[in-house]
Amino acid sequence: MNNHTGNYIVTAENIKKSYFQGKMQVFALRGMSVSVGQGEFMALAGPSGSGKTTMLNIVGGIDNPDSGDIIVDGNNYSDMKQSQLADLRLNKIGFVFQAYNLIPVLSAEENVEYIMLLQGVAAIERRKKARAILDDVGLEGNYNRRPSELSGGQQQRVAVARAIVSNPAIVLADEPTANLDSKTGESLLNMMRTMNKEKKVTFIFSTHDNMVMDYAKRIVKLKDGRIEDDIIKER
Fold first, then answer.
1. How many domains does the chain have?
2. 18, 76, 96, 98: most buried by Cβ count inside 10 Å?
3. 177: number of Cβ within 10 Å
4. Does a structural domain hold residue 169?
């Protein structure tokens, strides 16, 4: 196992997680250990039920493992209070959920501004950054539309804009291209790759989309809650 005192932004050590479906116990992760270097652009790949989303949620502090250690940016989650974990999530981690998780009563611009609002960024600065990032993801002119007035692909782009607008250290993206046509998906991946190269933001995707795997520099393949393969294409 790699030592987390190295240049790793995420270290997971022997993570186990199970849950119950009715009376049946399902083992989502069966002792998963992986280290992610600062600035990686990697995919957790595998079929449905392989543990990809569970692992992302544990790295993001949304879900707790049954056992094992998760260390993010030098912080061991098991040593942290809920308030500290919430603070880390707010300031260090960007999330892109498969179901978008946009706030329905807010406009696209307000959804993107929301994280910055929680961070205490001034209103003028929030608006400027939100509009610039919405332009970057191809949503110029849609600032005031609510999620219900946007297509699935447009909602996904708002979700990506919200995740990356405050330059988090890590972006966790659960099936980011699942609801997009290939052209939109490719433009999003290109934008994320640019952020990764220029700002050294670490990206961890869960996916079974071949296009995402083509873009990823490292693919960790999961099967039945275990790592089946770990392919590093380039550093």
1. 1
2. 96
3. 22
4. yes
Which residue range forms the structural domain that includes residue 209?
Answer: 8-232
Q: Is the dihedral of CA 62, 48, 40, 138 positive or negative?
A: negative
The CATH number given to whatever domain includes residue 194 is 3.40.50.300
For residue 3, tell me if it sits in a domain.
no
Nearest to 226 by CA among 59, 32, 64: 32
Following DSSP, what letter does each residue of the chain receive, concatenated?
---TTSSEEEEEEEEEEEEEETTEEEEEEEEEEEEEETT-EEEEE-STTSSHHHHHHHHTTSS--SEEEEEETTEEGGG--HHHHHHHHHHHEEEE-TT----TTS-HHHHHHHHHHHHT--HHHHHHHHHHHHHHTT-TT-TT--GGGS-HHHHHHHHHHHHHTT--SEEEEESTTTTS-HHHHHHHHHHHHHHHHHH--EEEEEE--HHHHHH-SEEEEEETTEEEEEEE---
Dump pLDDT digits (tens) for 16-71.
999 998 899 989 999 999 999 999 999 999 988 899 999 999 999 999 999 999 99
What's the pTM? 0.89
Residue 40 lies in a domain: yes
Residue 22 lies in a domain: yes
Q: What is the pLDDT of residues 134-189, one digit of tens each?
A: 998 889 999 999 999 998 888 988 998 999 898 899 999 998 888 788 888 888 89
Give the amino acid at 234. Answer: E
